[in-house]
TrEMBL record:
Keywords: Cytoplasm, Methyltransferase, S-adenosyl-L-methionine, Transferase, tRNA processing. This is Putative tRNA (cytidine(32)/guanosine(34)-2'-O)-methyltransferase. GO terms for cellular component: cytosol; nucleus. It comes from the Eukaryota. It comes from Vombatus ursinus. It catalyses: cytidine(32)/guanosine(34) in tRNA + 2 S-adenosyl-L-methionine = 2'-O-methylcytidine(32)/2'-O-methylguanosine(34) in tRNA + 2 S-adenosyl-L-homocysteine + 2 H(+). The keyword Ligase does not apply. InterPro entries: RNA_methyltr_E_TRM7, RNA_methyltr_RlmE, RNA_MeTrfase_FtsJ_dom, rRNA-MeTfrase_E, SAM-dependent_MTases_sf. Methylates the 2'-O-ribose of nucleotides at positions 32 and 34 of the tRNA anticodon loop of substrate tRNAs.
């Protein structure tokens, strides 16, 4: 498969490289902003689960215009290449110290906008993926209510599944206006969407807490101490019109009305990704799969039947030794 094949299959991947975005997800935030004007009046913004940094790039470019300079804080467990105008925190969004560090960079002031495009490495088991994503969203919500100003906005990725209505009800406890939005650059075949939450306000008597990290504690207990409906349906909005590119369609390399196509490498390769070692092994032929040579085990059974007990075990062991690792 040539290096241009993905450029044909994924037009937003190609456009992201050509326009200097670190990932195609930049277009999702741009399209959400076109629909909801998320960046209007924003001077302090937080990007949770920020790596590789495409949403931080969007914030930097969109908020870096005229007026007082905006302060943007990006948070991720993984290292991220530096971005102009973006302060980076390599930390855990489930820890109170991370929230305190964010506020410290804002000189004690709360944020106007918190965004989160984080998602787990999907397993293909939809129920598990949806549950893990829901827990990640609740972790992002929990730190957001520590750093967000009253009336502020929160945008986070969700997986639309059976229990997504429970998530909506939990978000509505803190935001009177919650919309499920699907950008044009998000594939129709994907269950991802984005919860756009506006008008942050803490419920009366609610005391936010970050005493326990996510893996040791379920946030459902905290949020469910509040009263309200446990299931909620919110408006669904498809962002963008038919003039935008279709994320599920294959396009020719030469787009109509565009300059002559030239292959463009990614704007910023990942820094020490967790799959780096596996990629090296695959390229060098170090990754293999177990294969069974046909006839090996039947031969072993025949030899074992024809020999005394001890020698039969030996023959079977030798036959099993013919299992090989083929690259």
């Amino acid at each position: 498969m040539g290096r241009t094949s993905k450029d044909k299959r994924d037009v937003y991947y190609r456009l992201a490289k050509e326009e200097g975005w670190r990932a195609r997800s930049a277009f999702k935030l741009l399209q959400l902003d076109e629909e909801f004007q998320l960046f209007s009046g924003v001077r302090r913004a937080v990007d949770l689960c920020a790596a590789p940094g495409s949403w931080s790039q969007v914030l930097s470019r969109k908020l870096g215009g005229s007026g007082p300079p905006a302060c943007i804080v990006a948070v991720d467990l993984q290292a991220m290449a530096p971005l102009p105008g973006v302060v980076q925190i390599q930390g855990d969004i489930t820890k109170a110290s991370t929230a305190q560090e964010i506020i410290g960079h804002f000189e004690g002031q709360p944020a106007d906008l918190v965004v989160c495009d984080g998602a787990p490495d999907v397993t293909g088991l939809h129920d598990i993926d949806e549950y893990i994503q829901a827990q990640l969203l609740l972790a992002a919500l929990n730190i957001a209510i520590h750093v967000l100003k009253p009336g502020g906005n929160f945008v986070a990725k969700i997986f639309r599944g059976r229990d997504v209505t429970l998530l909506y009800s939990q978000l509505r406890l803190f935001f009177p206006d919650v919309v499920c939005a699907k950008p044009r650059s998000s594939r129709n075949s994907s269950i991802e969407a984005f919860a756009v939450c506006r008008g942050f306000a803490l419920p009366a008597g609610y005391v936010p807490s970050m005493l326990n990290p996510l893996l040791d504690h379920s946030y459902h207990g905290d949020f469910n101490q509040l009263e309200g409906p446990t299931r909620l349906i919110v408006p669904f909005l498809a962002c963008g019109d038919l003039s935008a590119y279709d994320a599920d369609r294959t396009y020719p390399l030469q787009l109509e009305g565009s300059p002559e196509y030239r292959y463009t490498p990614p704007a910023q390769p990942p820094i020490q990704p967790p799959y780096q070692e596996a990629c090296k092994l695959k390229k060098s032929g170090g990754l293999g799969r177990a294969t069974l040579l046909l006839g090996a085990l039947p031969d072993a059974q025949e030899q074992a039947a024809a020999q005394p007990e001890n020698e039969g075990e030996q023959a079977a062991t030798q036959a099993l030794g013919s299992l090989s690792l083929d690259p």
